[in-house]
Amino acid sequence: MEGAVVLLDFWPSMFGMRTRIALAEKGIKYEYKEEDLRNKSELLLQMNPVHKKIPVLIHNGKPVCESLIQVQYIDEVWNDRAPLLPSDPYKRAIARFWADFIDKKIYDQGSKVWKTKGEEQETAKKEFIESLKLLEGELGDKAYFGGENLGFVDVALVPFYSWFYAYEKCGNFSIEAECPKLIAWAMRCMQKESVAKSLPDREKIYEFILHMKKIFGIE
């Protein structure tokens, strides 16, 4: 069942972090291959010829692309431990809805916070916080989005926490002041080894973003 597992990834990628967390939660040993996105490897181009993007999960020589699909695949293949998606079809549909919401809103809105200035940035910050508040509402008083245990939505969202500090520094605002419950949830997730070991240091992410700002000429 386990077979050979390889992950083609790039360390600051919140999408790759999802797959790292899922593999860690399941206790799956795998080979990590860091990609240089300016000089993509032959293996990456061969394994993801459509999008040519990381992360790519390779299981027994067969590629699985797109992070949320990878997390679901990991949950289905290694279904004997640490379930990430609920067994109830309706609850599973709700989890997929919120994971899709995170993909459609949080990445783009967060990117706009560090890529823009002035009025455009103010709008981006407002929209970003509004989306986080919707997620906070869905979390409610639960320990995790998955209830008592880390679940699919937690795995989809918590990688962004490693980028929050950079968003705050670039946008000069506090996420915790606006969404205290969400930050408390993130801190809870960070107490789990599977999460803590899969997320890079927030200062390193901030340095990476400053480097990207220079490349894009956003000063």
Describe this structure in words.
It is found in: Cytoplasm, Cytosol. Its EC number is 2.5.1.18. Residues 88-208 form the GST C-terminal domain. It comes from Hibiscus syriacus. This is glutathione transferase. This protein has 219 residues and is an alpha+beta fold. The chain has 2 domains: 5-77, Glutaredoxin (3-Layer(aba) Sandwich); 89-216, Glutathione S-transferase Yfyf (Class Pi), Chain A, domain 2 (Up-down Bundle). 59% of the residues lie in helices and 8% in strands. The protein contains 11 helices and 4 strands; from the N terminus they run E-H-E-H-E-E-H-H-H-H-H-H-H-H-H. Strands 2-1-3-4 form a 4-stranded mixed beta sheet. Helix 1 (14-26) packs parallel to helix 3 (67-77). The radius of gyration is 17 Å and the shape is globular.
